[in-house]
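Researcher: Next entry in the queue.
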Amino acid sequence: MARSQEQETEPQAATATVTATPPPQPGRGTLGVGMVGYAFMGAAHSQGWRTAGHVFDLPVRPALAAICGRDRAAVDAAAARHGWAAAETDWRALIARDDVQLIDICTPGDSHAEIAIAALEAGKHVLCEKPLANTVAEAEAMVRAAEAAQARGQVAMVGFNYRKVPAITYARQLIADGRLGALRHVRASYLQDWLVDPASPLTWRLKREHAGSGALGDLGAHIVDLAQYLAGELLTGVSAVSETFVRERPLLSGASAGLSGGADAVARGEVTVDDAAIFTGRLASGALASFEATRMAAGRKNALRLEINGELGSLAFDLERLNELSFHDHTEPAATAGFRRILVTEPEHPYLEAWWPPGHALGYEHTFVHQARDVVRTIAEGLPPRPSFADGLQVQRVLAAVEESAAKNSVHTSVPSS
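Model: Structure for this entry, 418 residues:
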């Protein structure tokens, strides 16, 4: 889950207009959703679940059954704000509810594996935020649980929401259709600036035991997944550097186990994750890839950019212009060739059949609506889960290889695929 200016704290969440969960239509069932976590990602996921049934013609309707968090007053407030029917303070109680068929995990990475495995073993479907886990070992255990659950008809998916941007999904279609030919280069960067100020407090995202890694897992996980998704192939090895520019920060004040409050005026603590990571890699086909992830790029709020070059053409995407895709067809005559803008708002484009007339733009929040739609359809129609826990595991393996390479003076480090 990417983070920009706002500091994510457990009892706080972005606000959004609340609409009631769509009532079931005649002959249609519901999918009871139970969500763990209610801060930034919890608010985004809530909006997705709330809206999907209003916009898309779904085989079953999501029902916001219950939300879960440790602070009773805060989770009750979140339930009221985001339209959840009930609230729990123990995720085990949430899993045990008869009206919950799917568990949506929006917590820090250190709890993903425990909650997901318990939910799958209890017979629930699972959607888990990215990165899938804090370690490869945790992710492997989650995949084993997901594979066992799949044999029982359960679904386990990971929340790489940027796959659900219509322009990204359409870019994948163009590449799969051979419009770029053999791929040569993938360039990906994800730049934010919310940690530039050394007075920013030591939140959970800056502690390895909670977050697993810093900008690498927060932002790098997204662009690694997008590179592999768009290319349709895996990274086989990486060479990396990383840096922690601010090694101590003010502790959070207040009594919320370091998850809420302002910065303490005196007490400081150690930052144990990276502020930035830069790495190169090679895809299975031999195409070269480069990546940059940082939360220290002053002036860049949420700048995710991708460019893919092939023998027949190129594609480029900028999240700040997320309704557009730049496409260059290198087979055209040189006199008229060049990048052209594709406005990805036509009904023929992915997800757009249910939205507004052409030219009416979508935004960040719509990726979570599309995610909810895809989860529901995957469950109801027995489709292969995409992105799956196995996809999340492969990203985790890349992140681990990046950390290993950076720790060994950028030595080339292989990425296993099994």
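Model: The chain has ten helices and 17 strands.
Researcher: Noted, moving on.
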